[in-house]
Structures are given as structure tokens and as C-alpha cells.
């Protein structure tokens, strides 16, 4: 959704609702891939001259478990809260603000940025995942291969 925010920037107290669902073809989420459309619900509002986008971003992704390589379904639920500005007073502030020189907000760009910033740093099918056996390669969650039985007893 592209939102024209000229009026919003000029009117403290103004707000615009955002509610959309879209299925993007972003290829830079690797190794994650989306399995459900992204839902964005919330609003953009001007409070005392400060324009903020507050959106709930929901979707679902899959990735492979870091230990056993089984596919894992990962629910996505992010609270996006970003201050929107038309220009920066100071270059150092860039990371805290979303700059909209033309006062147009592309909500999909914002969602993509937030999602990439918040990708999980590790993926596990469960905290107890036993992973692949380094000797025979079997999935130790499913198979008792016995390769390390002796050592297990000593632990
Ligand atoms: Zn696993
Ligand atoms: Zn084994």
C-alpha cells in the first residue's frame, strides 16, 4: 500500500488506518521463506507533529532446523513502531527514522525492512532437538542409531 502522507505530516492529531494483506516475492529473506501472506494492521498518526507508524505485522515462515535440518514453521508477529520523517536533521539519525522525502509511505517496504531486521538468529525445531548424528547422519530425534551409546552413559 502506498500512502500519501502530505496532509498527515501537516496536521497534528490526524491518523490513517492501515489494514492490508499481501504475498510478496522477496528473495532476500533467505534462508527463511514466507508461507503465508503478510498482514499489516495498525495506523499512521501525527501526534504533536511527530508522525509514527504503529503496525502489527503477522505472517508465517519456514526454515530448516539448525541441528536436524527438518523444516520448521515459524510464526511471525512483530510490533512495528517507526517514526516517519520527511528529512533528517542529522545523518547519524538515519537508523532511528524512516525517511520519506516525497511524503509517500510504501508499507510493504517498511514491512520488509522490519522483517529482515528481526529475522531469528537461530532456528530449532525444539529446544531439545538432538540433531543429526555426526557418525551416521541419521536424525537423532527419530532414530536411536546407537553410535554414541557408550559415551552417553559416561555423561
Ligand atoms: Zn531439529
Ligand atoms: Zn548414528
Can you offer a commentary on this structure?
The chain has 155 residues and is mainly beta. It has two domains: 2-124, no CATH class; 130-155, no CATH class. The protein contains three helices and eight strands; from the N terminus they run E-H-E-E-E-E-E-E-E-H-H. The strands form two sheets. Strands 2, 3, 4, 5, 6 and 7 form a six-stranded mixed sheet that branches. A hairpin with a 6-residue loop joins strand 5 (50-64) and strand 6. The chain is elongated, with a radius of gyration of 22 Å. The site of one zinc ion has 6 residues, from loops.
Tally of DSSP helical segments = 3
Q: Order of helices and strands, N to C?
A: EHEEEEEEEHH
Structural class by sheet pairing and helices: mainly beta
Ligands in the model, by name, code or SMILES, are:
zinc ion
Mean pLDDT: 92
Q: Helicity, in percent?
A: 10-25%
The proportion of strand residues reads 35-45%
- What does the main sheet amount to? 6 strands, mixed
- Total strands: 8
Q: What characteristic shape results from the CA principal axes? A: elongated
Unreliable sequence segments: none
User: What's the end-to-end separation, in Å?
Assistant: 56 Å
Count of distinct structural domains: 2
Indicate the radius of gyration in whole angstroms: 22 Å
What is this structure's SSE topology?
Blueprint: E1 2-4, H1 6-10, E2 15-22, E3 33-34, E4 38-47, E5 50-64, E6 71-85, E7 97-99, E8 104-106, H2 107-117, H3 149-154
Parallel strand pairs: 6-7
Antiparallel strand pairs: 1-8, 2-4, 3-5, 4-5, 5-6
One zinc ion binds next to loops.
Amino acid at each position: 500500500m502506498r500512502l500519501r502522507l502530505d496532509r498527515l505530516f501537516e496536521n497534528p492529531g490526524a491518523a490513517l488506518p492501515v489494514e492490508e494483506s499481501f504475498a510478496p516475492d522477496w528473495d532476500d529473506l533467505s534462508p527463511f521463506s514466507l508461507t503465508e501472506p503478510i498482514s499489516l494492521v495498525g495506523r499512521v498518526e501525527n501526534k504533536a507533529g511527530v508522525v509514527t507508524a504503529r503496525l502489527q505485522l503477522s505472517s508465517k515462515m519456514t526454515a530448516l532446523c539448525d541441528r536436524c535440518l527438518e523444516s520448521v514453521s515459524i510464526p511471525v508477529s512483530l510490533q512495528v513502531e517507526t517514526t516517519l520523517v520527511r528529512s533528517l536533521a542529522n545523518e547519524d539519525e538515519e537508523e532511528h527514522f524512516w525517511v520519506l522525502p516525497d511524503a509517500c509511505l510504501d508499507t510493504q517496504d517498511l514491512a520488509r525492512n522490519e522483517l529482515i531486521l528481526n529475522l531469528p538468529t537461530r532456528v530449532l525445531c525444539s529446544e531439545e532437538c538432538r540433531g543429526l548424528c555426526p557418525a551416521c547422519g541419521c536424525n537423532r530425534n527419530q532414530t536411536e542409531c546407537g553410535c554414541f551409546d557408550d559415551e552417553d552413559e559416561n555423561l
